[in-house]
Amino acid sequence: MGCGNCGSTHAEGGGCSSPGCGSNGDCSTGACNKLNTYDWLNHMTLPSDYKPFNIVEVRFKGSRKEFYRNEEYLDLYTGDTVVVESDFGHDVGEISLSGELVRLQLKKNYIKEDSEQIRKIYRKASDSDKEKYTSFKAKEPSTLERARTIAMEMKLAMKLSDIEFQGDGRKVIFYYTAEKRVDFRALIKQYASEFKTRIEMRQVSYREEASRLGGIGSCGRELCCSTWLTDYKVVTMGAAKTQNLSINMLKLSGQCGRLKCCLNYELETYLEALNEFPKGDDLYLETGAGTAKLQKTDILKRMLWFSYPKNSDWIPIDLQRVNEIIQLNKKGEKPDTLMDKPIGAEIINKYEPAPDLISDQDINRYDEIDEARRKSGKSNRRNKKGQKGPRPNNPNNRSRGPRKEGAPGDKPKGPRPKNRKPNPNRKPGDKPKNQENKTARSENNGSKPAGTTKPKRPNRKRPRPNKPSGPKPPKTSE
């Protein structure tokens, strides 16, 4: 994020001219929206005898913030790097808030001003402290990758999401998420021998993990948990149902895999508006045109959609009109229509119900038609002219089985008649032609004798008449 809200003068090379940016967008910090608090008292003139509040807010990696006591009353501004006290050694962080607004942050986090949990600030960070801190920060990606590999080899049901080196490098904090309790005693020993430093395992929730890592939500903006949201309220599925949202977990879930926190933002507005709506999802209205059923409700527009049983059209009705019809039905009265003036959907439903073209049809109706045609001898096949009718009796078509006896074109079967006329060209003692051919074949080893092959049949196609030459006669219109 850039310094869009910065009100101070910018230099030519970029950044703010005032030290520490004066809480005007944190230009020099590189993290403008990590749960920052705008210091609106920064530019106010304070009394001469005013003693500044000696507790400041310090931000570390991610969204982790803690409070430290400025016992030496150092001149600190937002964005300054300081060296602070730690459990084991010292740490390096940046000032995120100072002044009287820190009192409000202490009350918000339920911390007393004289609490022993508040540690002290040693000094402003020198160049050597910053270089050492930067070198350890550069080792975090490779260390996290190696730590994940070791956890997978040990087959632990946990997910390492982030890692943070202390400013002096004497301690490393591993942030992880897990569904169940994890015994990582052996893992800590392995990490200590691998990285040669003090190990601290810190379990965080899935929402806190998303807050540390950050990201872009489905709305196109940065995640609320990583910019301004500090308390994570419980989000239930009832919030989505109250707002008439489709129950789709892919759309209702955030980056953390849980229900989005923004489902609670407008929940109170919807609950207040629903008090004026009739109770129950199955709402029916009795009218002269029939009984209308509730199909859809738009809470913010104060509109309800109704439809009749045999009509698919939805009729939008205002909430005030719906409450009037409900009161009339309680008295036993029925209005003529849902609206003050009848519309087309109600008129059709009252005088001419819409026909049902789908449910009255039977998918087996075509089978009955084919069976009736089969019994009557008709067929759906088409003849050569393209007209439906019975198939012509083709004797060469063997697909229909053997022909019946007595069909036209069949030769009579049985013995030859005795009164057959003899062949006048046949001489006494001559053998029949078929007997002569058999004898000739046996003599020629099965081959036909010369001169016994049948001549080719002449072409019986009729010659086409010659077309008359000359120009074609003009067509005459009838």
By secondary-structure content and strand pairing, the structural class works out as alpha+beta
Order of helical and strand elements: EEEEHEHHEEHEHHHHEEEEHHHH
Percentage of helical residues? 10-25%
- Overall 3D form: elongated
The low-pLDDT segments are 1-31, 347-352
Commentary on this structure:
Among the domains are: 19-125, no CATH class; 135-212, GMP Synthetase, Chain A, domain 3 (2-Layer Sandwich), CATH 3.30.300; 233-274, no CATH class; 284-351, no CATH class. The chain is built from 12 helices and 12 strands. The protein has helices spanning 101-108, 127-138, 140-153, 185-195, 206-213, 237-242, 249-252, 267-274, 319-330, 344-351, 365-376, 433-443, and strands at residues 55-59, 65-69, 81-85, 90-97, 119-124, 159-165, 171-177, 198-203, 284-287, 290-298, 303-307, 315-318. It has a 5-stranded mixed beta barrel with strand order 1-2-5-3-4. Helix 3 crosses helix 4 (185-195). The protein is elongated.
